[in-house]
Design a protein that fits this description.
4 copies of one chain form a homotetramer.
Chain A: H1 12-26, H2 38-45, H3 49-61, E1 65-68, E2 72-75, H4 85-104, H5 109-125
Antiparallel strand pairs in A: 1-2
Helix pairs in contact in A: 1-3, 2-3
Chain B binds a DNA duplex (15 and 15 nucleotides) through α3.
DNA sequence: GTGGTCTAGACCACG
DNA sequence: GTGGTCTAGACCACG
């Protein structure tokens, strides 16, 4: 189940993308699994099908799912997970302003690593 | 010096805010320092004064700078740095989707901590 | 309906903020109500959408309304009304110069309380 | 002694005006008293003479002080204190948004009157 | 000189 | 449809 948060700064279609990746990470979705149809997921999340469609298109572009004409959308092979330098660089760019914010709050590097530890535990614990 | 990146997903005024916080963290701006005037910074960054004004107003709201009537804007005291639970929670919420993305790339927790180490070193090294 | 007064010393966006709070106080706007869209209100008040947008953003920052992506702005829950010491202190600071002015006019404390009584009656009477 | 507060939302020249009226209300300045010269007060308050001059001009316009060419500025007769309906109306207009803000905070009318009581006591107590 | 407000209009992302 | 950002430029109060 994906939880949408209207207060979240992330757009809804991004929250859907992140939520599906989260399920893959947690093993709740494995390669070959059929995704809920756009309309199904849209009605479950109470959003317009347009929004889910946008998320699925982006997920396919990223190689997370594959769309099979007339059959539906399926989780793609793990091998497709991108690990390129580009992705690495993008994450670094997202992380940098967070680190500055953290230092601005005069919190230590170690505490940030502990926070990350906590987040990972929360992700794993709920499998 | 603040570098604006038009490719960056962050709006310009947010990049200015982050850039100024970065300078505070790096010690290039210390409490009491006078900020460049809105018009000065605007012409340096080649943006309209309105955009810089928006960034300065948000920075004042966050307690990073104080606006002195008719004199200009000044870096405020370190004591004003907020460290509340709310700020902590906000950072956690920004960090979580990054962690998921990271796990999705099948990178280890330790490598993420190393990346954070690298970012902190880059911030400190350039003082 | 919000009435803008060009003679008023308050900026337009502050008059809009105050006018909306007035409607909440009067019960003309209740939690969950959808606000007029920025463009609607702007054309009603004959100001630019930018000015209404500034008012709405400040109202959201104050917790009076919530902005829902792509849907519009809505009056938020009563529980969100801030009642902290900071707000109390701010009001006291605004009230003090008025009291001095009042005393300067050699009017009595009691008459000031009566004036306040009148203002409250006008606010309640018009529901 | 007038205390200027750079964080105050009121412009400095208004703070000077209010501060002098406060002294009249408190009886620290009585009709006939000579005011400090513009340059004296400016150096005491660490502001430019222009700012004090602006305050004195407005005070004279309001009939609080009179300027005697070559002699200086003097506190005028009490009789000159304006008590017209215009002034009353102006105060009411300043008070109304404060009352709305107060009601918005869900505080009672009685508590507002108590706050006013407190402010008056602080003004009288310090004579 | 300084910052604050406002206009008129554009373009964009999101739903 | 919705709000968010930005430009280019104006005018103003304040110091």
């Amino acid at each position: 189940m994906i939880r949408l948060n209207m207060q979240d700064t992330r757009p809804i279609y991004i929250q859907i993308i992140d939520g599906i990746k989260e399920q893959v990470v947690r093993g709740l979705l494995v390669p070959g699994d059929q995704m809920p149809s756009i309309r199904q997921l849209a009605s479950m999340l109470v959003v317009t099908p347009n929004t889910v469609s946008k998320a699925y298109q982006e997920l396919e572009r990223q190689g997370v799912i594959v769309s099979v004409r007339g059959k539906g959308n399926f989780v793609s092979e793990q091998a497709k997970r991108s690990k390129g330098k580009e992705e690495y660089q993008k994450i670094k760019e997202k992380l940098q302003p967070i680190c500055i914010e953290w230092q601005y709050m005069q919190e230590s590097k170690e505490e940030l690593k502990e926070l990350i530890e906590t987040i990972f535990e929360e992700l794993e614990g709920s499998v």
